[in-house]
Amino acid sequence: MTDAGRPRVVPRNIAHRLLMGLFTTLVALASVAATPRTADARAVAVVLGTAADFGVLAGSTVTNTGATIVTGDLGVSPGATVTGFPPGTVIGVIHAGDAAAAQAQADLTLAYNDAVSRTPDATIATELGGTTVLPGVYNSAAGTFQLTGNVTLDAQGDPDAVFIFQAATTLISAAGASVTLIGGAQACNVFWQVGSSATLGANTDFSGNILALTSITVGAGTTVDGRTLARNGAVTLDSDTITAAECAGPPDRTTTTTVNSTCALNQDGPITFVATVRATNGSVPTGPVEFFSDGVSIGTAQLDSTGHAELTVANLTEGSHEIVAVFPGTVDLDGSTSPIFVQRVDAQGFCYVEDCWSQTCATPVANLLSTRPSQLSTRPRRPSAQRLCDPRAAPASLRTGSRGAWPTSVKARPRNSP
Questions:
Q1: Does residue 415 have a pLDDT over 80?
Q2: CB 219 within 8 A of CB 238
Q3: Mean pLDDT of 263-291
Q4: pTM reported for the whole predicted model
Q5: Where are the domains of the chain?
Q6: pLDDT over 70 (residue 26)
Q7: Which listed CATH number (3.40.190.10, 2.60.40.10, 3.30.479.10, 3.40.50.300) goes with 255-398?
C-alpha cells in the first residue's frame, strides 16, 4: 500500500537515465542551431528589385567628401539632397528625389523585410574577425556584428551560395577590416541586414549588400564590392570606391573537337590521327581523347599543353573509314565529338585523305561521348554510301574511268612510282 503522506523517491538508476536523456536532447538541439543550412535547403538570394541598379541609395541625403567613385546609380528618396558630386564621380545616373529613387526605396523595403524574416541557421559570435563562415542565414546573440580583421565567406564551390547576416541593431567594422570571398562566393549574394545603422571604418575592404533601416557611414578610403542601401537615413561617403556587384553568369563550358590525319603521299606505315580540342572560354582542355574508326574504339591519347592529342595506329584495312575523336569533358568543361573525318586506304596499304564534296561527311556521330566502347550506342558498321564521299559525288570534271581521278594533292601514288 502506498503512503500518500510521504514523497515518492525516484530510483537512482531511473533518475540517471532521465538526466542523460535530457542532456542528449539539449546537445542535439544545440548542434542543430549551430549547423548551417544544408545544400538541399540552402538560402536563396534576397531580391533587390530596382534597388539592384544602385550602388548608393539613401532615404534623406547622400553626402560625399573627396574623390569617391560610385559604379551604379546613386539615389535618394523621399529626400532629394545629394552633395559632393563632384568631386565624387557616379558611373551611372543620379536620382535625387525622382520616381526611380522612390521605386528603388519601395523595392528596398520589400528586400529588407524579406531579409529580416529569414529563419537563422545559426547564432554566431558578434565578432566576425578571424572566422570562416559557410553559406546560410546568421544572427548574433547580442544583435550586432563587429568586424575586426578579416572574415572569410566560403561558398564551397557553389557560385550561387547565399550569405545573410541579420544584425538587430548595428554593423561596425574597424579600420582596415576586410571580407574575403572564397570557394566561388560572389558579393552579389552576400546580404547584411542592419536594424539601425552601419559604420565601415577607414580603409575597409568590404563585400556584400548593406540593407540598413537608418543610415550608413563609409569611412575614408573604403572599398565596397556591393551596395550601401539605407531606407530612412543618410549615406555618408569619403573618398570611397563603391561598385554595385553583379552576379557572374554560369561559366562557358563549351568545347569543340576536330580530328585530322598526318597521312602523307606514299605513306605505307602507321597512320597518326591528330585531335584538336578547343574551349570557348579560352582555357586549354586537358585529359584523354578517344578515337573511333567506324564506331569502334581504336585507342586513347592524352591532350598536350596545346590542346592536341595524337594517336598512331597500324594501317587500316582497305576502304573508307569514318574517324571520330571524342573528348569526354572535365569537371569544368563539357565533352564534345568531332565531325567525321574520312580516311581512305587502298589495297596496297596506302592512304590518302578523302575529299568531301558532300557536307554529309561533316555530320557528327551521335551519342559517342562515352569513353567505353561497351557503352557505345553506335554499333560497328560499314560506312554508309552517303558518307563515303566516293568519286561519284565529285564534280564530273574530276571523274575519269570507272574509279575516277581523285585530286593529285590527296591521291596516293603506287609504291616505287617516280
A1: no
A2: yes
A3: 85
A4: 0.59
A5: 41-243, 255-398
A6: no
A7: 2.60.40.10
